[in-house]
Amino acid sequence: MREALAGLILATFPFIVSTFAQERPPEPDGYRMEDYRAPVPATLAGVRVLTTAEAEAIWRAKAGAFIDVMPRVPKPQNLPEGTIWRDQPRVNIPGSVWLPDTGYGKLAAATEAYLRRGLVRATAGNNAALVVVYCLADCWMSWNAAKRILTWLFQRGVVSGRDRRLGAGRSGAGRVATGAANARGDRIAALATIRSPAESFVRGQTAAGRSSSAPRRRT
Length: 219
Description:
two-stranded antiparallel ribbon, Rhodanese-like_dom_sf, 219 residues, alpha/beta, PQQ_CXXCW, Rhodanese domain-containing protein, four-stranded parallel sheet
């Protein structure tokens, strides 16, 4: 499994629109641990910026694997007795692999393993695949997931510290931020943004059952 991740080309893709005009926070040293629906940093160390049109082109050309890390809607605690709760369907970019609850700051071992398996599944074992990770507007889930995956790549020796500093940039509404080069010269994308799920190429609906193997987050 870890070997399958060694040559991965990564991109993340959080939807961002509503608060871009606000001041962006600096990058934290670690992961975001709370208040996940809040303005995200304009950068993730080692990234450069692409346009949304370029991200859409990747999707239309089927040149990347899109991973949705939007968490599940939790079951309300105060439902009347006898109420049947059904997971809400997830509307996302068609062809995406939904890996819910994998963008929290701290992951259980089972959830982290689920994310690793999901990466391999999304890329069909293609170590040179481009992976695009996304969430919602001002959502730290995709930022956390990108940082975690990049950490795995660094641990595998795929990306050097020098490479990570290349192409540092900023992101904006309707833009996609991508990363530096790995040791083989491939492009590693680290962070991406798009204006909203209403973009022209977000027309699909993914049922919750597609991610039935996901470990449930305890509340």
